[in-house]
Automatic annotation (TrEMBL):
This is Threonine synthase. Its EC number is 4.2.3.1. Keywords: Lyase. The keyword Lyase applies. It is an enzyme of class 4 (lyase). The gene is thrC. It comes from Lepagella muris.
Length: 435
């Protein structure tokens, strides 16, 4: 498969080059040149398939030309080795619980797949040190750090906005040591993401060290996220539900997650429509309303992983729909909620249904409650475990949130981070010291 840049001015590349480069040299994002359609017989079998089985068939359709079949199957099945249950919350609304992986957030799916795929591409270059740069507003950092922890030939730099992630999220990537270094940036997530993007375009840096990204700008991080859309659909289909009116609501920040869902739909997954639910960082919602994209500095909210002021994957959404605003609004609607509304949703849902939402899932659940039409069934992506936001959730509900042991383990480590200003020269000089 050939990968092309959304900006259209960079050379086309192979999957390996797209994964290793991360970002195209014209600052565009790589996209597969064609999106394969899966046959009807695949969808007929779907409700009976396990997650690793279906993931490896989908991976074969996308990556099969570039990776040996048995290796691709093995690495996909190994990456997808945790449950992703679809759980009923209220009458016509179900939660796709994406928090049962090692770091308790949906990013585990893409990060684990990417770590294994990069290992495959690097198999004959054992002496080559790959430097993974990752900007995080909370969840990506820990998933990537854990996905690559102890992997020979890989060094990970996690850039995060100082004081703007939850204490547990911070512990998940600042206490690991070994080949993981946390860089605490005095700025926002967008500053972190911009430092990473500038690094890919800096000749001196790229001559000195091999850099790649593990954010959703990297095709190996974002495309595997489509696996769980198929799995959600399959679980619902297995219940005998009416599959013509399925609406998926995605809590949206950097828009990699919803873009993976849109690509799943292009591959044939019959999702009727999508809702992109924003917190106060409602850049996409404003775009849907006005047709104008006006990025702005992100503000801090209680759904911090979505605190993104210039979503990278907006470029991919535009690309998928040929920059046609009407076509986009036909398939995707949006909404935006304040912290107060998010908090009320966490509280009311717990009281009314007994289901403990995290602040991100709450944004999406509320959107379905408000915007599902009669006869539709809504699935929302519950992107992280509520315990990752323990203090916030407990303050809202007044009830204790138990911390799973694998999360508690992170809290026992000692925090180590390097503080840096949101300044490219300082970041670059720090990286160059590692050479
Ligand atoms: N929401 C992310 C921010 C980056 O998103 P990504 O999907 O591009 O990695 C986070 O929680 O870190």
């Amino acid at each position: 498969m050939i990968y092309r840049s959304t900006k259209g001015t960079a050379p086309e590349v192979s999957l390996e080059e797209a994964v290793v480069k991360g970002l195209a040299p014209d600052r565009g994002l790589y996209m597969p040149e064609r999106i394969p359609t899966l046959p009807k017989e695949f969808f007929d079998r779907l409700p009976k398939m396990s997650l690793p089985e279906m993931a490896s068939e989908i991976a074969a359709a996308l990556f099969g030309e570039d990776v040996e079949p048995d290796k691709l199957k093995a690495l996909t099945e190994d990456a997808m080795n945790f449950p992703i249950p679809l759980v009923k919350v209220s009458d016509n609304i179900l939660s796709l619980e994406l928090f049962h992986g090692p770091t308790l957030a949906f990013k585990d799916v893409g990060a684990r797949f990417m770590a294994r795929l990069l290992g495959y591409f690097n198999r004959d270059n054992k002496d080559r040190m790959v430097n993974v740069l990752v900007a995080t507003s909370g969840d990506t950092g820990s998933a990537v750090a854990n996905g690559f922890l102890g992997v020979d030939g890989v060094r990970v730099f996690v850039l995060y906005p100082k004081g703007k992630v939850s204490p547990i999220q911070e512990a998940q990537f600042t206490t690991l040591g070994r080949n993981i270094e946390a860089l605490e940036i005095d700025g926002t997530f967008d500053d972190c993401q911009s430092l990473v993007k500038q690094a890919f375009l800096d000749k001196e840096l790229n001559d000195a060290m091999m850099l790649t990204s593990a954010n959703s700008i990297n095709v190996a991080r974002f495309l595997p996220q489509m696996f769980y859309y198929f799995y959600a659909w399959a679980q619902l289909a297995a219940t005998g539900a009416d599959m013509d009116k399925v609406v998926v609501c995605v809590p949206s920040g950097n828009f990699g997650n919803i873009t993976a869902g849109l690509i799943a739909k292009r591959m044939g997954l019959p999702i009727k429509r999508f809702i992109a639910a924003n917190n106060a960082n409602d850049i996409f919602y404003q775009y849907l309303k006005t047709g104008k994209y006006s990025p702005r500095p992100s503000v801090q909210t209680i759904a911090n992983a979505m605190d993104v002021g210039d979503p990278s994957n907006f470029a991919r959404v535009l690309d998928l729909y040929g920059h046609d605003h009407a076509a986009i609004t036909n398939e995707i609607s949006g909404c935006t909620y304040t912290d107060e509304e998010i908090g009320d949703t966490v509280c009311d849902t717990l009281e009314q249904t007994g289901y403990q939402l995290d602040p991100h899932g709450a944004v999406a659940y509320r959107a379905l409650k408000e915007y599902l039409k009669p006869g539709e069934t809504g699935i929302f992506l519950e992107t992280a475990h509520p315990a990752k936001f323990k203090a916030t959730v407990e303050e809202i509900t007044g009830k204790e949130v138990a911390i799973p042991e694998r999360l508690a383990a992170f809290m026992r480590g000692e925090k180590k981070s390097v503080e840096l200003p949101a300044d490219f020269a300082a970041f670059k000089s720090h990286l160059l010291k590692m050479v």
